[in-house]
Amino acid sequence: MEFEDVFKRERVTRKFTNRKVNEKLIADIIKKAQQSPSLLNSQPWRAYVSVGESLEKLKKASKANIDAGVKPHEDFASMLSLNWDTFPSQNMATMGASQTYFFRNKLDLFTKSNDAMFNAQSVVFLTIPRESPAWSVFDLGIFAQSIMLIAIDNGLSIMPAHSMVSYPDLVRKYVHIPDNQLVGMAIALGYKDKSSEVNDPKYFPERVPFEKIFKLTK
Ligand SMILES: Cc1cc2nc3c(=O)[nH]c(=O)nc-3n(C[C@H](O)[C@H](O)[C@H](O)COP(=O)(O)O)c2cc1C
After folding, report:
1. Is 162 in the pocket of ligand 1 (CB under 6 A)?
2. Which of 46, 119, 128, 173 is the most buried (most CB within 10 A)?
3. Domains of the chain with bracketed CATH
4. Quick check: 105 pLDDT over 80?
């Protein structure tokens, strides 16, 4: 696929079909993503892939937690604090919340898809060591983006979601991740359910005007 097309297709998918993704393809994607740059080539990332029984057990246990009202406690929780600067806060309010289904009586659609882990048939959990500088979070983001673009180039759809790492204790248990790793993010890879309303392109959020984020100084 042309790079521009890959990049244009990078929109999230909130409901996948039941079709499984070839496990070798997933491994190949992650192997290619290892080419990503990182601070001093530190490559702090690890990728733990969950499919089949492991993923079904995790989904079930996570849903039980949600139903029981267990508060999410992401490993990156301290960074997910509400102390956002006004610029991203405003973007979330105007580009995210008010524009799409969040505010058209469709919050339920969004919540349900998250709670069901998007019916994903394969999820890549991305970790960095517990003892990590902020640079490693940055590196993990680059690695994640590589995985997503390579996956799209291979005909897959993607869903990066912190909601899938809301309960890192469960992720560690069912995906066999050691305690010394922070469960940073999760990316579901699969085939888009085109008939699902939650995937309707009319809900694609827009981006802030370019002039707001770009400044050239000579
Ligand atoms: C770090 C990160 C965490 C995200 N977490 C969630 C999530 O928990 N649930 C969800 O539905 N979408 C999540 N998303 C998807 C974003 O909401 C989405 O990328 C954004 O609204 C822009 O939409 P688009 O990618 O389709 O253009 C996440 C994206 C990123 C990069």
Report:
1. yes
2. 128
3. 3-79+117-200 (3.40.109.10)
4. no
